[in-house]
Write a structure and sequence with these properties.
Blueprint: H1 2-5, E1 10-15, H2 18-30, E2 43-45, E3 51-56, H3 58-66, E4 72-76, H4 77-83, E5 88-92, E6 98-105, E7 120-123, H5 126-137, E8 143-146, E9 162-167, H6 171-175, E10 178-187, E11 189-193, H7 200-218, E12 219-227, H8 231-237, E13 245-248, E14 254-262, H9 266-276, E15 279-284
Parallel strand pairs: 1-3, 1-4, 7-8, 7-9
Antiparallel strand pairs: 2-3, 4-11, 5-11, 6-9, 6-10, 12-14, 12-15, 13-14
Amino acid sequence: QEQMTSLPPFRLAIPKKGRLYEKCSKVLEGAGLEYRREARLDVAVCKDLPITLVFLPASDIANYVGLGDVDMGITGEDCVAEAGVDVKEELKLGFGKCRLCVQAPVRKQVKSVEELAGGRVCTSFPELTKRYFSSISGDSETSVRFVSGSVEAACGLGLADAVVDLVETGTTMKAAGLEIVAEVMKSEAILISNPNTKLPAVVDLIKKRMEGYITATKFVMISYNIARSLLPDACKVTPGKTSPTVTNLDEEGMCAVSALIEKNECAVKMDRLSEIGATDILIIAISNSRM
């Protein structure tokens, strides 16, 4: 407690380990939030900004943000829904995508989730699971038991008739002999804030920085030369986020065009522009942005 009171007042919570931590580290780096984390310490101070980074379990971050112990945090939509706290979603981060699903043993050939109502369900998301089954159970009360890990083993060990767990690729689920019966919700990593933070300007700054970096990871700049008579057709291929930038060239009737395009569309866009008559087509990487 003594250590925390001597640190910068604005606190940003980050998952302390796992794949979410690795992805968040890249976002922090891309957003210019430089820090040095000492071994075995779950607190770090940003180099050029008055921000304290706090490394917490992803499942706890929504509660810390909602209660005002930290101002912002990165966690999954599933964790926010499970916590049931009042937080503001600032930004979807585009990673950590998965689904929270009701799963049952393949050998039982469960055709609908209603068949599981009134049975035994194990999960790491008890509140979400209770709410979900109460909406379909009618008069049958479903027994929901919390387990903190290896949820997929519960059916095989006779602890449950079904489980509610996250599915990313489905490999773990299939290895446990389970199949999806119903989807409870989709989830991905999001940036959240406390609606009553005393430092809203810092919230806006972090949001803009992260938004700029994420945009840079999704888009590239395409640049090409084209006859002005062909410009309308070319602009249909590369409309940009708002509009393309068009500049006259010294050669009469020619212009240079630059526009943002999504990374995964590069090859197709270049082919189409070449067919229209564009020349000197270049793809330029973006390291960061402000839109």
